[in-house]
UniProtKB/TrEMBL annotation:
GO terms for biological process: L-arginine catabolic process to L-glutamate; L-arginine catabolic process to succinate. Pfam families: AstE_AspA_cat, AstE_AspA_hybrid. It catalyses: N-succinyl-L-glutamate + H2O = L-glutamate + succinate. The lineage of its organism: Bacteria, Pseudomonadati, Pseudomonadota, Gammaproteobacteria, Oceanospirillales. Residues 48-236 form the Succinylglutamate desuccinylase/Aspartoacylase catalytic domain. This is Succinylglutamate desuccinylase. Transforms N(2)-succinylglutamate into succinate and glutamate. Keywords: Arginine metabolism, Hydrolase, Metal-binding, Zinc.
Amino acid sequence: MLEQLLDLVRREETPEIQQEITPAGTRFDYQEEGILRITPAADVPGARRLMLSAGIHGNETAPMELLDRLTRAIARDTIRPAGPILIVYGNPPAIRAQRRYIIRDINRLFNQPDAPAGDTEEHRRARIIETRTAEFFEQTPSALHIDMHTAIRESRIPTFALLPGDEETTPDPQLLAMLSHTEIEAVIQQHTPGVTFSSLSHFRHGARAVTLELGKARPFGQNQGVRVEALESLLTALIEHRQHAEKSPHALRLFDVTFEIIRTSDQFVLHVPNDQANFVAYPPNSCLAEDGAHRWMTDEHSRFLIFPNPGVDIGLRAGLVLCEAQEYRPAV
Ligand SMILES: O=C(O)CCC(=O)N[C@@H](CCC(=O)O)C(=O)O
Ligand SMILES: [Zn+2]
């Protein structure tokens, strides 16, 4: 029953039995709505703690369908976990409503210990997730958090990853090597501490953390165009703590976030068509947005735009501007 965690979320049902053990001895513990802790029959030395999340935005269904398949395979003992796993479906009310969020974008409410408590469902949910995440990671250096999303718009690079980080952070070689075996084609390194779920894991718990963008957001059952086979194979190998060789590694385009476009007032204007894809490259000195006297301009380096969104709340990012770095080539 507990392997049906996603269905329980969608039906807003609480399971009567909140702990189950598979024939192979894998234990499922239902912690909260949409949060399941999986404990292996026997911890394999060196196996990672894995936190796998999806549904932080309720309309991004392909990652949820992937996580649902993995959870059910573990329950059938088809996949045998080597280390503990925390499965998180981020925003149950938004998942049921099939919307990105209900009142506040929950992926802007993390890693802000000094922020006011907030009184929305998303604020309450973010605190629950933070509590369960802290319990789970307990400062485990080998931990890995993969937060899976799909994007609002089409993308000239359809599948890409974002790595949280600060000014000094460079892309983690282990994560790059891992991602080079999946459908991910580009990796974006962030350089300012963020407020996303992956930022919480990285900055608060010292975990390796990555946000994956797996394609365009579509309703449940309509994700045939979202290719995740290689990712699913990698996640299965990570869960079982075994070598992964199903897909030969490929080069990755690397980008750095050079600045964020922030909507700072009602006068904010984003000079980007609503249907423009992610990763459009601009000529230098293009004005991407303006708000009063402030203008966000490209230059000869900072010229790729992703996540343009003029409808964000004031104070939140309305776009990320990137410069391209030297590509990653897997070791031969
Ligand atoms: O398509 C968009 O505009 C956003 C897609 C999405 O939800 N992306 C995440 C990225 C999180 C990160 O920066 O690590 C988000 O915006 O929350
Ligand atoms: Zn998302």
